[in-house]
Batch of 2 targets.
Target 1
Amino acid sequence: MLHAAPIQATVDPVAQSVRLLAFAGARDVLGAAEIDLALADACTASQLLDRVCSAHPGLAPYRRAIRLAVNGSYVAWEDRVSPGDEVALIPPVAGG
Amino acid sequence: MSTQATSAPPENVPRIRSERLSLDEVVNAVRHPSAGAIATFEGTVRNENEGRAVTLLEYEAYGPMAELEVTKILNELHAEMPGVRIAALHRIGSLSVGDAAVICAASAPHRTEAFVACRALIDRIKARLPIWKREHGPDGPYWVGWEDARCSPDEPHDHKAHTHESGSHSHEPGSHSHRDRGHHHK
């Protein structure tokens, strides 16, 4: 399955949430390919994943294996995530 | 305009595709009068993985990011290895045993640089492209690498093997390695 929606590159100044995408095993655990996750203020990528795992405890056992991408690029855990961003849960990749 | 820029495929041609991949397409993309060597890699669907029989592999991509990431990899390698031309395609959707999932080609004046560039290209693609595969077979559907990643949240478990650094070799746990089909044109 190809996720065809365009990556959201611009930040919506009134956004109060992030668009959270989940793929492969992470999507199966989450039960959805995409959810709106409330986020009023910017936080770090690490804090955002903590929040996702608290809201969806089924993901917690996989936390250390998941990477985050923000607006289509991998981010470091201390990088900032802002309301309006497109955030993707990236399970261990298996291309090739 | 640099000579490398002319070897890059047009920006509007997707490199992540559901259609069958063509080795000729990547070879022709890197073919050049100054190249005395073209190395290629084709990753094919194998009939077993870690003891499980596999009849079908279902590939999924975060498409827009996978396109961005493969472009970054090609740009990096162009910068690191001047004079080398590289091209790659990755397939998604349902693939049968023997189908090509990924195809890479690298050309250079001499074979050593061509092999090195082709190896670096496939290694970075495998380590970084947001692409996943689900095995189908008698043991049921299985996301490659996912259950291996599970651990107790309070268990300090080093998941270095599951990180996505470039240069990690292609036989790490959870990876699905492929028969290497090298072609060498001189």
Note: Chain B touches chain A through 49 residues (CB under 8 Å).
Target 2
Amino acid sequence: MATEIKPGRKRLTLGSVGADLLLVFWFVFSLFPIAWMVLLALKTDTEQTTTYFAFSPTFDNFGTVMSQRGTDLTSVDFAGALVSSVLNCGGAVLVSLLIGIPAAYAAGRWKYRGSEDLMFQMLSFRFAPELMVVVPLFVIYNQTGLFDTTYGMIWVLQLVTMPLVVWILRSYFQDLSAELEQAALLDGYTRRRAFVMVALPLVRPGIAAAALLAFIFAWNNYVFPLILTDSNATTVTVAVTKFLGGGGQAYYNLTAAAALIGALPPLLLALTIQRYLVRGLSFGAVKA
Amino acid sequence: MATLEITGVTTRYGKVVGVEDLDLSVGDGEFFVVLGPSGAGKTTTLKSVAGLVDIDAGRVAIAGRDLTGVEPYHRNVAMAFESYALYPQKTVFENLASPLRSGRTGSYSKADQERRIELVTTTLGINHLLQRFPRELSNGQRQRVALGRVLVRPADVYLLDEPLSHLDAKLRAAMRAELKQLGEESNTTALYVTHDYQEALDLGERIAVLRHGRLVQVGTPEQIWREPADTFVAKALGQPEINLLDAVVDDGSLVGAGAGGAVAVPVPAGLDLAAGERVRLGIRPRDIDRAGPDDRPAPGHLAVRGRVHLAERLGRLVELAVHVGDTELIMVASSDHAAEEGDLVDLHVDLADVHVFAAGAPGEDTPRLGGGVPRQRRPAEEPATGRAR
């Protein structure tokens, strides 16, 4: 860059200070529940209902949650729920990508009778409250043997992840000039190879974004695993709530610790693919 | 290296017509230019040949082979897109190697690929950019890479969509000369689309003029220039635009209206016009000569006197707007004997350079009267094209 824009020193006015204060207030306000959860996760059983900030923190709760040592909550297999959550959500996102990428490409490239209706139909799966479909699904799952299985969860989570993947990626494919693939066709490549060689690498940031969002949505889903699983394929969201009672005493500190652990996988995934997300932003700016 | 036959091709985008009932016959090795304003269907014509759009009627044949239903990658045509369509994630070298690596344009060893790429990039002046990405190039450089991706490979037909449009004026002239030479040497049939009439006249062995998706005229540059089929073609070629004057047939002459009888042209032989009939006269600015006040017009020349209303310098040339009576004639004069605004000037025009068109409302395009080139209808009627090789 020949010219560099230097950030000027911000003038301190009553308005700007006020705005900053407002932002700080909002920041504290919105982060407070998370901070409170962290504090709660570090408290002992006896202190779990206290509201003071000065206490001697302990990391035992995390160990307890992962192993259920020393509690009466022997029915909570949190580590197992963590594993099946990863399997369910990872599997759901993988299936959604495998089917959704070609679907999004087709939807973005070709118009045919009813193509818009089809896309809208897919989006409409997200309109209906999950509670509306979950009861009939429960009956079906019970009769078909899909109840409390990873396959069953991967299948039902498609309702959550597939529309996201298709809709996000369709707009990425639409933004991509069709002439790029046409050039590849004239270079002597088949349509399949033109897609793989030209279109697919260019929407990689979109795939990363769609996969991350789909994973988070699937991870946070509560109703489907609550109704459609028992102990084999139950997920973090359901397992966390078990610490709140059922066995007599509610363990708020364990619940908080479990929730913190449960929030880690999506966070790790986001950090891992952040590189592609950011590249996606800069890529759009200099698109040839 | 093949002939290209386009027969009755109609391509629509929904209800919008891209091209309609288009007939073109391009000879083996011919450099054929398609000229027209934007939206005339030029790109659609190319994409119909390439098989990138589905044609709704008619057929396209290369080397006598009907291409209906043939996939683009089996057509053995190469195309330079107006949008360049370079692969953003590949370097210039990889972009140029792409057609050589597909296996459908012939098989090339690594050394072959490099030699071909080296050759074509040297010609195009981009051989120092091979390791760059398209986003690191200027538009002119990208356009040359796009052209290179076509020229690097053999093909039956080259389809070139405004391949020089984004180059600056000097480079464009140089590349035009280069392309002309390439066209003559490679002997590959080429369909070249442009909206620049100079490019068309310079490069085309023949030119097709399109308007609103329809073919208006096909002919050699000489034919298109000398005998435009209608006022649209006449206006499309030449800058400044051709002068169009309304005229009335009177006593064997075509008398320009509003010029006080100053513009009077004998009715050309072979034109059957009744007295009182209205026509339009077309005179190209470059066909008007400035004469000295005492020069007598040569036989077969029209002499007009008018007053310079506006003089606009264009470097070596001066564009003059001359008022003759109530009408205005635009002419181009050399700046050596430039006229000042307000000067009286004498103008001579060779009668052979006066075009006669049917009368029409302002802005309406009307056909040439007599002596026109018949619109190409069927390939069979077309005189043998294709150069001796």
Note: Residues 301 and 351 of chain B are 5 Å apart (CA to CA).
